[in-house]
Amino acid sequence: MLIAQITDIHATPNNGNMARLHRVMSWIETVRPDLLIVTGDLIDHEWYEGYAAIEVELRRAKCRFLVLPGNSDDDDKEAMREGLEEISEHAGVESGVGAT
């Protein structure tokens, strides 16, 4: 079993990280892992629209995946569920790092 992991996308509309994610996903398409694990933080600065854009990129992998949110994703779990609508059954949207 081949497992790939990407982490800390920190996408915003202005920081170029979606372009980086696109390049990473192009590489992952060639590797063809059995499982892709995406560990938070997916977005920054409450850019909730970014979840839908990230979902489009993740679906390019054509494999099973698991999304684990980070502290930047913990502000609005419902926005994450809606943005990752097609893959939310595989996204650990109930998880995350909270303040202690």
Summarize the structure.
This protein has 100 residues and is α/β, with parallel strands linked by helices. It has one domain (3-90): GpdQ, catalytic alpha/beta sandwich domain (Purple Acid Phosphatase, chain A, domain 2), CATH 3.60.21. Helices cover 32% and strands 15% of the residues.
Keywords:
three-stranded parallel beta sheet, Purple Acid Phosphatase, chain A, domain 2
Helical segment count = 3
Question: How are strands sequenced across the largest beta sheet?
Answer: 1-2-3
| Helix content, binned percent | 25-40%
CATH class group:
Alpha Beta
CATH topology: Purple Acid Phosphatase, chain A, domain 2
Q: Residue ranges: pLDDT <50 for 5 or more in a row?
A: 93-100
Determine Rg (CA atoms, Å): 13 Å
The amount of beta strand, in percent, is 15-25%
Give the tally of β-strands: 3
What is the mean predicted local confidence, pLDDT? 83
Q: What is the H level of CATH, i.e. the homologous superfamily?
A: GpdQ, catalytic alpha/beta sandwich domain
* Straight-line N-to-C gap: 36 Å
Class by alpha and beta content: alpha/beta
Please, how many domains? 1
Largest sheet: 3 strands, parallel
The run of helices and strands is EHEHEH
CATH architecture: 4-Layer Sandwich
Shape: globular
Question: Could you explain the architecture of this structure?
Answer:
By secondary structure, the protein is an alpha/beta fold. It has one domain: Purple Acid Phosphatase, chain A, domain 2, CATH 3.60.21.40. It has three helices and three strands, in the order E-H-E-H-E-H. The chain has a three-stranded parallel beta sheet, with no helix packed on it. Strand 2, helix 2 and strand 3 form a beta-alpha-beta unit. Helix 1 runs parallel beside helix 2 and helix 2 packs across helix 3. The longest helix has 15 residues. The radius of gyration is 13 Å and the shape is globular. It starts with a strand and ends in a 17-residue tail after the last helix. The C terminus is likely disordered.
